[in-house]
């Protein structure tokens, strides 16, 4: 078998045919306006494709065909077993094209090929499988009612679901929306980020090949404009969004200005990772703390970007942490040995460097702080660690890059106060050997996911994922996700 080295992937990349058109009603189409935008690879700053820049006419077109498909019940009207079979076929195709889709993801978003081939694409296929396999097992309820009545409570698909998603895990985040939405019988219009549209465009063809009827799954590449138009559209029944809190707030307003579509938001985070003096294994905790912020270049909504360390173990822990951080060496993400790739684009690069500059003024730089490999034309930043006060800007705002703020605390109450003192509440972690502390602190942490003695565990679909406070509402993953894409109906049948 051929070794998949850097030159293997570079060879594959050189011969890759990249599709940049929108996918509407079962076919690839240019934007009505004919406009395109450049898709730039963060690996070297080169343009790798021209992508359809969808606007109002494309949004109207996609929503109209999605509505038509829903009204015709071409998908919603199928026995769930049939939807399951088609979705499973799609998952098989995703796995069969794993290398190609992973390569698109790496070229487009700068993610290491070792991750896109093992996490992003298999994770998306697994998500499709999981919801496919679930959908013919969930039923409704027959509820207690007057003797002359039969009372049914059922869940029905909402109709047209628009999914607007970010660039950090392009296909994976999209799958967390489209898999449950499609399994439940909805039509979907997916709007990938303008920074990472390629994998979504590619998998649309595979959806069609698997047998998803025309109009049921559509992909509209473009920037904020088509996202906004979908959120304002009166024929979109549900807008499922993953992205920044600022845009999430706008989307809620667009829903209010239009048809009160259901709005589900998965937003930003500034997650605390608390290390207590009785941490069971400082080496493991240090490696996990580094991975929590440097995996995926720190472009993680759950990034453990605030490391809260007890004063008694601070020096020992920081030594281990900086050692662990040094193992993340940014490099060409097409190299399978590289664990840290490129920052998604120049805008994000400048944003992260801006925060590092702010950090230099308000905090103590312990590690990193520089852009690397500039001659490549790509966007690379080394792992960066600051020791900082709890109220510093870098310790409060989401950076979405490889920048860690270390904050020292003196007591458990202090740690919990700092942890919860954030507008966000996506995730949190605590490291302790004491079972009582573990449970008590977990209960006090205001976050949608709490890890104890680990970080970022839980690739299983069984765990609901989402945020407290301004990290969002609703939950992706798990059977609970189906609630977002269904309406609850009470049917009362009078017998006599
Ligand atoms: P973003 O909010 O800038 O963009 C997200 C999507 O919204 C993109 O597709 C974008 O084109 C679109 N968009 C932009 N402006 C819009 C508007 N006015 N109306 C409608 N759509 C609009 O976010 P991003 O930079 O792509 O992603 C980073 C953010 O995503 C971070 O805040 C991160 O924490 C968050 N995120 C959250 C989760 C989660 O599950 N909670 C997961 C991944 C990323």
Automatic annotation (TrEMBL):
| Gene3D superfamilies tied to this protein | Aldehyde Dehydrogenase, Chain A, domain 1 (3.40.605.10), Aldehyde Dehydrogenase, Chain A, domain 2 (3.40.309.10)
PANTHER family named in the record: ALDEHYDE DEHYDROGENASE-RELATED (PTHR11699)
- InterPro entries reported for this sequence: Ald_DH/histidinol_DH, Ald_DH_C, Ald_DH_CS_CYS, Ald_DH_CS_GLU, Ald_DH_N, Aldehyde_DH_dom
> What stretch or stretches form a coiled coil here?
none
The name this protein carries in UniProt is Gamma-glutamyl-gamma-aminobutyraldehyde dehydrogenase
Species per Swiss-Prot/TrEMBL record: Paraburkholderia caballeronis
UniProt key word Nuclease: no
GO molecular function annotations of the record? aldehyde dehydrogenase [NAD(P)+] activity
- Family, as annotated: Belongs to the aldehyde dehydrogenase family.
- Write down the Pfam families for this protein, in alphabetical order: Aldedh
Q: Which CDD domains match?
A: ALDH_GABALDH-PuuC
Give the record's keywords alphabetically: Oxidoreductase
Does the entry feature the keyword Acyltransferase, yes or no? Answer: no
Task: Show the active-site residues.
Answer: 266
In what residue span(s) does the Aldehyde dehydrogenase domain sit?
Answer: 29-490
